[in-house]
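Give me the fold.
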Amino acid sequence: MFMYNPDQPVFEEQPESNIEIAYGIEDVPKPLWKAILFALQITLVDFTPFMWAAGFASLAGIDQPDFVPTLLCACFFCMGICTFLQTTVGNRLPIVQGSSSALMSSMGNIAGVYGLPAVWGASLIGGLIQTVLGVTKTVSKVRKFLPPVVVGSVVTAIGFVAARIAVQWTFSKQEPLYLVLALISFLLALVLKFKTKGIISQGFILVTVVIVGVVVSSFLGIFDWEAVHAAPWLRIPRLFPFTGMEGQPSGAITIIAAAVIGGFSGYMGAIFESVGDYAATCAACDEVYRVKHIDKGIMASGLGCMITALFGGLPCTSYTQNIGIVAATGVASRRETQFAGGLFLLYGFCPKMAYILAGIPKPVIGAVFLISAASIMFSGIDSIVSSPRTLRNTLVAGITLTLAVMLPYQCTSTYKEWADGLSPFLNMLCTSPVFIAVLSGVGLNVLLNIILKES
């Protein structure tokens, strides 16, 4: 009989971590200015709603000028709420909840076919189902299929995803000036991290971005101050902000079965990614990964997605980027993440502040984030090598990482036309590295270490 113990470790043996922790999960950085500095550093990396909002509008075929700014404010506002939920009633880890690329893709396709009311209906029902899965402990019951070799492979795949984001941002502009700024940012970040101490070393991401991304970029005339000046100071988030929008079906929320099914394919990917993110966060925090982290995390994530549907934001899930910040800086305080949640709420009320973040050249952010991505990647490798070195485990990790890295690459390049013709769920199955890592890692572990286990 299955005996539920929320404090039961997911792994029989806790993987070793080589990350030096400056502030633990329950620590509160003091004085206040230091806490605000660390929180601002988090928001400088976790601001991808700017990309997902534009991507969603493109998939939905919406080109009205006020749509993306309104969606951005809703996304930031909901990021703050969802982050507070996760760090208080959720798994209480330093996890930032933000707009999901997988859910953006599935919801964007729904918007293009059924309209925005169907998107919020699918978000609401999908969030409800996710909440039920968390409350009923359904997801954690599969933990026996998640040994360190599997979760380590997933965490490593997350590191590759983070590295891909870093490289994409670094080379988002190919002009020599931007590439030089990226190189300066990378080198300055390393110097600040390893040749300084205290607040400068712990806040090296923020310091680097401010010096190079704001001060130097402004001096060179490439910081986008025009968008900042054009943005309003205050915009109050409201319920159902897109009701009655021109060109969209009437009503605030519409429940359409096909839309719910298509949307939940994105939720499945987000759940799998979250399980890996929770493991990676625990590894970065040197915390034992426990059953309660899975169940409470999935429950809080579902509740947050239901709230985002009411405020017209994109559904939220755990952010890989923040794991990199924790791993690189050693600041693992969930209270610090709550400070960041407060700033996200502020960005939701103040579009001008949000546009300041967007004005920082992407190559600067990407070059610094590359250091964080490397920290995530090797946290996963540490988990893999902590498992018994058997041929079976070697195949589980090796094949999982091969599929997670190479299959998305092939399906977004050589086989892009074929992959684009698949259903949203199958497309995600072929293009989401973390989703592929979870499915292949669990499947190979079951096949090699359970079904074909030596008698």
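The radius of gyration is 21 Å.
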